[in-house]
Amino acid sequence: MSIELRQVSKRFGDMAAVEDVSLTVGDGELVALLGPSGGGKTTVLRMIAGLEVPTSGDLLVRGERVNDVPVQRRNIGFVFQSYALFKTMSVFDNIAFGLKIRKTPKAEIEARVGELLRLFGLEGLGRRLPHQLSGGQRQRVAIARALAPRPSVLLLDEPFGAVDAKIRQELREWLVRLHRELHVTTLFVTHDQEEAMEVSDRIVIFSRGRLEQVGSPREVYERPRNEFVARFIGVLNVLELTVRQGVARLNELAFPAHGVPEGGTLRVGFRPYAVQVSADPAEHPLRAVIRQVYFLGVQMRLELETPSGLVLRTRISKDEFLRRGLEQGIPVSFQIREYRVLSTGSDGLAPEVSTVHTASHWAEGI
Amino acid sequence: MATSRASALPGFGLTMGYTLAYLGLVVLLPLGALLIRVTSMTWADFGKVAFSDRALAAYRLTFGASFLAASLNAVLGTLLAWVLTRYRFPGRKFLDALVDFPFALPTAVAGLTLANLFSQNGWLGRFLVPLDIRLAYTTGGIVMALTFVSLPFVVRTLQPVLEDFEVELEEAAATLGAGRWRTFRSVVLPALLPALLTGFALAFARAVGEYGSVIFISTNKPYVSEITPQVIMGWLDQFEYASAMAVAVVMLAASFAILVTINLLERWASRFQR
């Protein structure tokens, strides 16, 4: 393994930024640290780099404890959100900086920088100053500069935060390609779940300084460990129901009680794609009106409103939408094909959120 | 002069007119009067007065001491600005306010105080003079007085630049392996250079024009410890207005040349900005 955190915590005064985080990252992995801002993911990255010192816990790189190793000697490449390029130096000098400090022979520096300029599509820009580059070029210089001294780990803080949507997409693909070519262990911080899903081998989800779940993109999407992860990865409709006469109800919706006692509350969640919609009022058991249609290209996002005023989000392909004769404002019938139980009220027992319940259990009984 | 960009806000004519009138009255008019006065002399007379041995010695002392003072401030002022912006400690606000003190204090008072402190029987002089460190009534004293009066310039021009300086730049250098000193030398200093040169130029200009504090701490001996303003005062005392102006013109020209040079240096140093 390349990086290991053992029960690492970091407090700033009274505020706990990172609490009891344990994590291992394998050699050559591409890992996303994902979570809402203020979740502690940047702090974790900065601790690995040596820019922050953990309050407690151990930090290991290649099996060696590095808590007390200063930044300068950790041999870690760090790419800042603001890129932090040296404004007074040319692109060449920026990339060469780490090599010059290591007293690398001049010929070797020139060869290495030339190689990186080529690899990063920056040929002919070596003499430019940072302010003469585009945003995307600046970012590539920042990554090239971090990689020049051949670090054991590459850390990127919100690498796609400062560029516009179109370039973002290109950069993501480019990062995946780069990682495949160089195979350097890479950790990056993002608050964008889509970005994390698309780019990384594994996702580490943080919330309020704690580690919520670690897994492959598919794992965290399909088998979220708790409500936070389920809601953070992808879109989730969440309903809070009350159990009456053995059935959990909210207005016209009903679910099996899942062992919640009479009068207790049950929280369920379901993905937009689990809602099936039809223009034929007899096809599904539940009624609603299409309140709003959002056109997303290949897909459409619909907002359904039930007669009692509940609003549900659903997703459907454009072809399906047209084939079924759906339109904004028309009455439809729908059913919820599958759902998860998020919590079973006040008894404090956490349910198995990763379990998917299918609609067949209950739809008939209503 | 078609430089007035079409702007949503009116007022270009008024403000530009005011600016030109103000600069004309306050700066150009006195300078013009100075030059007209000098034209009453012949070139030979002008040369005799403006480049007399006494005047030359005074130029050397004035510009030399001012250069030293400004250089000293460039180093110490940078340190002071660094401490004031980078660290939070009790009394920081007070220290920060203290930097402006040389602006507020009448310079004659400063000169007198320094002379008293460092004279043979002064509070500091009584310890320093036996060690052969004489700062009262010497060239060193002049440099010290000029350093004192021009202290705020470097500090005040550097402070905003240091406040805005991204800490990430230093962190980036550290992750690449650079130690504190290397980071300062290669990353911080080049970025500060334009502001540093501005501060240096202002401090230098202030020191060249200084009169009040120096006459109290200098022995004011012609050829030895007499600064240029003192030479000018000497001519004025003898009602030799034209001679005084001649010396003043040389000083003006030299100051102007030096400021232009520093400005060019500054432009070179800030080539990395937009």
Structure description:
The complex is a heterodimer of chains A (366) and B (274). With 366 residues, chain A is of the alpha+beta class. In chain A, 25% of the residues lie in helices and 34% in strands. Chain A folds into 2 domains: 3-221, P-loop containing nucleotide triphosphate hydrolases (Rossmann fold); 235-365, Beta Barrel (OB fold (Dihydrolipoamide Acetyltransferase, E2P)). Chain A has helices spanning 41-49, 91-101, 106-119, 135-147, 165-182, 193-199, 217-222, 227-232, 318-323; strands at residues 3-12, 15-25, 30-34, 56-61, 64-65, 76-79, 153-157, 185-190, 202-207, 210-215, 237-244, 247-250, 253-256, 265-270, 275-278, 286-295, 299-305, 311-317, 331-336, 338-343, 357-358. In chain A, a hairpin with a 2-residue loop joins strand 4 and strand 5 (64-65). In chain A, helix 2 crosses helix 3 (106-119) and helix 2 (91-101) packs parallel to helix 4. The longest helix of chain A has 18 residues, at 165-182. Chain B is mainly alpha-helical. Chain B has a single domain (41-269), classed as MetI-like (MetI-like fold, Orthogonal Bundle), CATH 1.10.3720. Chain B has helices at 12-38, 43-50, 53-86, 92-98, 101-104, 107-118, 125-128, 139-164, 167-175, 180-209, 212-217, 228-237, 241-269. In chain B, helix 9 (167-175) packs antiparallel against helix 10. Chain B starts with 11 loop residues before the first helix and ends in a 5-residue tail after the last helix. Chain A binds chain B through residues 49-51, 71-78, 80, 82, 84, 86-89, 97-98, 101-102, 129-131, 145-146, 149, and chain B through 166, 168-169, 171-179, 182, 186-187, 190-191, 271-274.
